[in-house]
Amino acid sequence: MSTRRIDGTRRALAYGWALPTTALGLALVAVALATGARASVVEGVVEAHGGMLDAFLRRWVPLRGGASAMTLGHVVVGRDPDALARTRAHERVHVRQVERWGPFFVPAYMIASLMVAIRGGHYYIDNRFERDAVATSARPRAPEGTSRV
Predict the structure, then answer these.
(1) DSSP letters for the chain
(2) pTM score, two decimals?
(3) What is the pLDDT of residue 118?
């Protein structure tokens, strides 16, 4: 079997395994598009900003001041294009985490936050998924193609 075919099969399996979480992200983007958001596909990930997403990320993400961006499977929502660009490397780490954990990512993330908080740490900063994203996204990575949807 060729390397290209193996890579394609792995990619399809990763998208399928992440699909339950991605479906949540796509539903959020559908609502956001109805409120004026914009979306594009960057490196195989749907990125959306604008519309109700700014208010959602400010008010519904349990962080002081909210979040600049958030990953749900192969979907990343951000406050604006600059937030998406600034957080792209970090959020791509979360995309890869969802590809590994599949439908268990959201519960695992929440459990990791709970366990850290029980031990006296910060539920976000000390969460192992966030720490991995910060450490990994600090390493340089070559950019891939971008297309509009």
Answers:
(1) --HHHHHHHHHHHHHHHHHHHHHHHHHHHHHHHHTT-EEEEETTEEEEESTTHHHHHHHTSSSTT--SEEEETTEEEESSHHHHHHHHHHHHHHHHHHHHHGGGHHHHHHHHHHHHHHTTS-TTTT-HHHHHHHHHHTS------EEE-
(2) 0.87
(3) 97
